[in-house]
C-alpha cells in the first residue's frame, strides 16, 4: 500500500531531529519522554504492560536490552545501547 505525502508535510518534519537507537533505528527526539535502565521494578512493569497492549518496540536486534525509551505516544522502545549513550546522543541532537 502506498501513501501520498505532500511536500509541505515533508518540509514540516525536516526540522525534527532523529535520535539514533542503534542498528539503523531512530526516533524523533522531541517525542522522547524517558530514557531509563531496564533493571528497576517499575520499568519492568511498564515493559510488561506495553507488551500486553502491543506498544512495545524491540530494536535490540537480538542483543541484551540495555535501555528503555518511552515516547509521548506511550510506546516503549527497547534498545541495546546504554542509557548514558542514548542520553548523550539526545543532548547533542537537541542543541
Protein described:
The protein has 95 residues and is an alpha+beta fold. The protein has one domain (7-93). The protein contains 3 helices and 6 strands; from the N terminus they run αβββαβββα. It has helices at 7-13, 41-52, 83-93; strands at 18-22, 25-28, 32-36, 56-58, 67-71, 76-79. The strands form 2 sheets. Strands 3-5-6-4 form a 4-stranded mixed sheet. A two-stranded antiparallel sheet has the order 1-2. β5 (67-71) and β6 form a beta hairpin. Residues 5-11 have low confidence and may be disordered.
Please supply descriptive tags for the structure shown above.
alpha+beta; 95 residues; globular; 27% strand; four-stranded mixed sheet; single chain
Summarize the structure.
The protein is an alpha+beta fold. The protein has 3 helices and 6 strands. The chain has one domain.
Morphology call: globular
Radius of gyration, whole Å: 14 Å
What structural category characterises the helix and strand content? alpha+beta
Main beta sheet: 4 strands, mixed
- Number of discrete helical segments: 3
**Helix amount:** 25-40%
- Give the SSE order as H and E letters: HEEEHEEEH
- The tally of structural domains comes to 1
* DSSP strand tally: 6
Pick out the low-confidence regions. Answer: 5-11
| Strands in their spatial order, largest beta sheet | 3-5-6-4
Mean pLDDT across every amino acid position: 86
Between the first and last Cα atoms, what is the distance in angstroms? 37 Å
